[in-house]
Structure formats: structure tokens, C-alpha cells
Amino acid sequence: MNKTRITTLLAALVVSLAAVSLLWAGTTVEDTFDMKTKEYTEHTYNPAPFTHKKHAEDYNISCGECHHDADGKALELTMGDDVQRCIECHKIPGKAPKVKKGEKKLKGAEKRQYHAEALHDNCISCHKDFNKDFKKKNPAEKKGPAPTSCNKCHPGGKIK
Ligand code: HEC
Ligand code: HEC
Ligand code: HEC
Ligand code: HEC
């Protein structure tokens, strides 16, 4: 076998290995991204930045605190596993419609059909619990570090 032939073979091997690793990569996720789900026709608030890697690694939150199956049961995942996006199940973009006086407010699962309600539930309830705990452990602090107000998550608040 001459040198060029070996080089060609090696090159082919590298290309096919790269192709295989792509196939096996599953769903990838950015370390940090803006929550701006593309199925929305319009966003009325500036997008909330989300430090995915920090949440999973530095804050030591297990994947299943946020990712669950079609019954709402927490998933045990490792990086590289396929993951469904929230909107695949919490299908309606935006918040639940405001109700008129006398009408019943949507609650629980019905409310969480609306994507933004499911996200708010997940993000804010954990942040509230965490801050409560944090203040208990640090009585001198007035506030916990996890954001719970509109403008802390949506920088600049409402889009003008
Ligand atoms: C604090 C909540 C939270 C934790 C913890 C978390 N994730 Fe996520 N993850 C999200 C959110 C929110 C998205 C964005 C989903 C969307 O676009 O609907 C996401 C997106 C992803 C995606 C990309 C999905 C896609 O198709 O765009 C993958 C893959 C993923 N996460 C895997 C994991 C794994 C594996 C772990 C654990 C090591 C983990 N996540 C921990 C909340 C979390
Ligand atoms: C495969 C479908 C599916 C996907 C994907 C999915 N959910 Fe859910 N989720 C459900 C079902 C079913 C329930 C149970 C009904 C309910 O309580 O809304 C649920 C429940 C919830 C709850 C209520 C949990 C509780 O304990 O009260 C929150 C909050 C939530 N989902 C947020 C999210 C977020 C955030 C994502 C994306 C990171 C996501 N869901 C992805 C199907 C899904
Ligand atoms: C299960 C718990 C949990 C969930 C769910 C969660 N967070 Fe957090 N988040 C934390 C904790 C804990 C901190 C603060 C950690 C610290 O500073 O010590 C934090 C901090 C943050 C911060 C400020 C610091 C940083 O890393 O950017 C932002 C912004 C944030 N979260 C956005 C979100 C959004 C958006 C979601 C929903 C998609 C979300 N979080 C869901 C636990 C959670
Ligand atoms: C912990 C972070 C967090 C807090 C606090 C928070 N949001 Fe959100 N909000 C989100 C995330 C994440 C989404 C999902 C956006 C997406 O995926 O496109 C969202 C979606 C929305 C949407 C639908 C999308 C849009 O731009 O029209 C509205 C409206 C909204 N939020 C308003 C508010 C208001 C008002 C408050 C305060 C009462 C608030 N949010 C507090 C994280 C947060």
C-alpha cells in the first residue's frame, strides 16, 4: 500500500467516525440560551436567559426536576440523551387567557396546557422554595439569589 492510499483510507475513516458520533449525539443543549420558544407567534416580554449547564451542574439540580415523561414522571437522564421540548406537551404558546369576572380561573394541569404557565410553575416554584430555605440558613440576608420577579427573569420587562 502506498502512502497516498493510506492517507485516503485514514481520511475516510475520520469522516465516517465523525458521522457516527453525530448520529449518536442524541439531543444536544447549549450551556446558556434565551428562552424564546419558536412556536410562539409573538413574545411580549424580553426573553429570559437560562443557564442550563449551571443549573444542572453548579446548582446540582437533577434533570428530572425539569424533564419528565408523558405522565409527568421525572426522567433520569444523562447528557446526550434525547429530550422532548416542553412545548411538545404544554402545547399552547403563551399564558392562559385572563378570565372575566365570575368565570372560573384555570388551575393545575388545565392551566399548564399553556406553555408559559408550565414554565413559570417550574422555574418560579423552585426559586421560591430555594430562597425560603436560603433565608432560613442565612438569617442576615433579606433576599435569596434565585429570581422570582418579572424583570429579574425578563431583562427590561415588557417589550415596548
Ligand atoms: C432547571 C431545569 C432543568 C434542568 C435541571 C435540566 N434541564 Fe434540560 N432543559 C430545560 C429547559 C427549560 C430546556 C428548554 C426546553 C425547550 O426548549 O422546550 C432544556 C433543554 C434541554 C435539552 C435540549 C432539548 C431540545 O431539543 O432543544 C436537552 C438535551 C436537555 N435539556 C437535557 C438535560 C439533561 C440531560 C439534564 C440533566 C443533566 C438537564 N437537561 C437538566 C430545563 C432543565
Ligand atoms: C412528554 C410530555 C411532557 C413534556 C415534554 C413536558 N411535560 Fe410537563 N407535564 C406533563 C404532564 C402529563 C404533566 C402532568 C399534568 C400537569 O400537572 O400539568 C406535567 C406536569 C408539569 C408541571 C407540574 C408539576 C408538578 O409537580 O406540579 C410542570 C411545572 C411542568 N410539567 C413543566 C414542564 C417543563 C418546564 C417542561 C420542559 C422542560 C415540561 N414540563 C415538559 C407532560 C410533559
Ligand atoms: C429545581 C430548581 C430550579 C428550577 C426548576 C429552575 N431554577 Fe433557576 N435557579 C435555581 C437556583 C438554586 C438558583 C440560584 C443559585 C445560586 O445563585 O446560588 C437559580 C438561579 C437562576 C438565575 C440567576 C442566576 C443564573 O444562573 O442565571 C436565573 C436567571 C434562573 N435561575 C432562571 C431560571 C429559569 C428561566 C428557569 C426555568 C426554565 C429556572 N431558573 C428553573 C434553581 C432552579
Ligand atoms: C424564573 C424566571 C421567570 C419569572 C420570574 C417570570 N418569567 Fe415569564 N417566562 C419565563 C420563561 C422561561 C418563559 C417561556 C418563554 C419561552 O419559552 O418562549 C416565560 C414566558 C412568559 C410570557 C409568554 C411569552 C411572552 O413574552 O409573551 C409572558 C407574557 C411572561 N413570561 C410574563 C411574565 C410576567 C408578567 C412575570 C412576572 C409576574 C414573569 N413572566 C415572571 C420565565 C420567567
UniProtKB/TrEMBL annotation:
Signal sequence interval, chain numbering: 1-25
Annotated keywords: Electron transport, Heme, Iron, Metal-binding, Signal, Transport
Coiled-coil annotated residue ranges, if any: none
SUPFAM superfamilies, per database record: Multiheme cytochromes
Chain ranges of the Class III cytochrome C domain: 37-154
Residues covered by region (Disordered): 136-160
Keyword set includes tRNA processing: no
Entry protein name: Class III cytochrome C domain-containing protein
Species: Desulfoluna limicola
